[in-house]
Specification:
The protein is of the alpha/beta class and 482 residues long. It is 62% helix and 6% strand. Strands 3, 4, 5, 6 and 7 form a 5-stranded mixed sheet that branches. A two-stranded antiparallel ribbon has the order 1-2. Strand 4, helix 19 and strand 5 form a beta-alpha-beta unit. Helix 1 crosses helix 14, helix 5 runs parallel beside helix 17 and helix 8 crosses helix 15. The longest helix has 26 residues. It is elongated, with a radius of gyration of 28 Å. The termini are far apart.
């Protein structure tokens, strides 16, 4: 219990600035991030599934939530999260958790890279206490103007100094002595920036505080009306799939960090669903399992799920007893923490390795990331999944077309053997070979070695045989039985 108590304090110190930062970046009151963190500890933390994984608001859903709040408002967000939680519970009951392991890693890493790029592009404006234009492309296009504007504005320069300083602390914290590193890097960055702001009275924007009870707003009947929009339904599906995938991929990573019981994927999916259902009922942010907090929990020596439950209790005590402390935190330093978090989401090493070894997977990763930046989260991930399926279909549809040498007098039948998987993807190659054969020679088309013959190929081959027969040739087709 002593180990779990110590670990819970460490996780609380890591989670506190991240909960607040994710909420602010998502366009909702800072306290809602704490509500999601509390639910992640006290609700999801008590349920079976994973013993050491810690849940709460995650940077991976920031972009999607911001888009939803901007388009539909804060009220319908609770509806979206509530229904997403219900869908996760249903998927867990149907034992679909293990199927999330079938998602292409390139798509997942591309999703994280896209989220990271959009998060960085948006939060760079908050670093300078400026308002982002909105969409990913607009944010990227406006960065040169942002940099020139900051250079001529003393208030923006002050905020940018705090933000850049926070990024530097996060990046260089691993170089500090071991005793100093017992303080989590996000807490050190936020704590240092807050102290400087208070000490020198710096003229920067701070977190707005309204109290924990003041931000809890269960969805009303009118909020459910937003579901009439196809875009809202897409948002619910995106929250469900991304939150589930991120949680289960995080579980697989956390299982490699400890020797305790392995995660039960279906139970963990239900635990995440229960937590999101409660968050939705309270009008809070969606939750996922978060690898940063989970890794800190393991590295701090946690032994049981008591540590993650206790971390939720510490968040609740903080939010109830000293909520005014949030009002001292400068927004620029929180933005700096999230810029660094967004950078860590971009898998640069994996991209280089994939480009050297499996270039097709690297293309899927890059296309997914770019599609997310250009369009939105749901459409970008869908584009990546479709590309991954197309690539797999192309690679598995190998077909060989072999025209056996003609050793006869020159007017006997030509034997053509087709083997492998004959699908519509390889149809141009098959027809090109067949159409290059002499039209006045009989052809024996041997399809006995085919493992798969789809309807498109079957129809095309029948049509080719009919045409060949009409041109005074003769075709004999050998088909596999069944």
């Amino acid at each position: 219990m002593r180990a779990d108590l110590t670990a819970s304090v460490v996780v609380f110190l890591v989670a506190l600035p991240l909960c607040v930062g994710v909420a602010v970046a998502s366009g909702v009151p800072a306290e809602l991030g704490l509500v999601t963190g509390i639910v992640g500890g006290l609700v999801t933390g008590l349920l079976p599934g994973s013993s050491l994984q810690v849940s709460g608001p995650a940077a991976g859903l920031t972009v999607l939530v911001l888009e939803a709040v901007t388009e539909y408002g804060l009220g319908p967000l609770g509806v979206f999260v509530l229904i997403a939680g219900g869908l996760q519970l249903l998927m867990g009951l149907l034992r679909l958790g293990r199927w999330f392991r079938a998602i292409s890693i390139a798509v997942v890493e591309g999703m994280l890279a896209g989220i990271g790029l959009v998060l960085i592009a948006g939060q760079l404006y908050a670093v300078a206490d400026a308002e982002a234009p909105g969409s990913g492309p607009a944010n990227l296009a406006g960065l040169p103007g942002l940099f020139t504007g900051v250079a001529g504005d003393p208030r923006a320069l002050t905020a940018a100094a705090l933000g850049v300083g926070s990024i530097a602390v996060m990046a260089l914290w691993k170089l500090m002595p071991a005793r100093v590193r017992t303080i989590p890097a996000p807490l050190a960055a936020v704590g240092g920036a807050t102290a400087l702001t208070a000490l020198f009275g710096l003229p920067v924007e701070r977190v707005e505080v309204s109290g924990l009870l003041g931000v809890i707003r269960p969805p009303s009947a009118d909020d459910f009306g937003a579901l009439a929009s196809a875009g809202a339904v897409g948002t619910v599906v995106a929250i469900t799939l991304i939150a589930s995938a991120e949680s289960l991929f995080s579980a697989a990573a956390v299982d490699r960090l400890h020797n305790g019981p392995a995660t039960h994927y279906d139970k963990e999916l239900m635990a995440q669903g229960a937590g999101n259902a409660v968050c939705g009922a309270l009008g809070a942010l969606p939750m996922t399992a978060v690898i940063v907090r989970s890794a800190a929990n393991v590295q701090a020596g946690a032994r049981t799920k008591a540590s993650r439950v206790l971390h939720g209790g510490w968040l609740l005590l903080f939010a109830a007893l000293v909520p005014a402390a949030l009002g001292l935190i400068p927004l620029a330093c929180l933005a700096g923490v999230l810029v660094y978090s967004g950078w860590k989401l971009i898998p640069l090493a994996e991209v280089r390795q994939l480009w050297r070894q499996r270039r097709g997977e690297a293309v899927i990763l890059l296309v997914t990331a770019v599609a997310i930046v250009v369009t939105n989260m749901f459409e970008g991930v869908l584009a990546g999944l479709l590309l991954a399926v197309a690539k797999s279909a192309w690679e598995t549809s190998h077909v060989q077309v072999h025209v056996q040498p003609d050793d006869g007098p020159g007017n006997g039948p030509l034997r053509v053997v087709v083997s492998g998987n004959a699908t519509f993807l390889r149809l141009p190659r098959i027809l090109s070979t067949l159409e290059s054969l002499p039209r006045d020679r009989p052809i024996e088309l041997d399809l006995l070695d085919l493992r798969h013959l789809d309807h498109a190929c079957h129809t095309a081959l029948v049509n080719w045989a009919d045409r060949h027969n009409d041109e005074k040739g003769a075709t004999r087709v050998l088909l596999p039985t069944g």
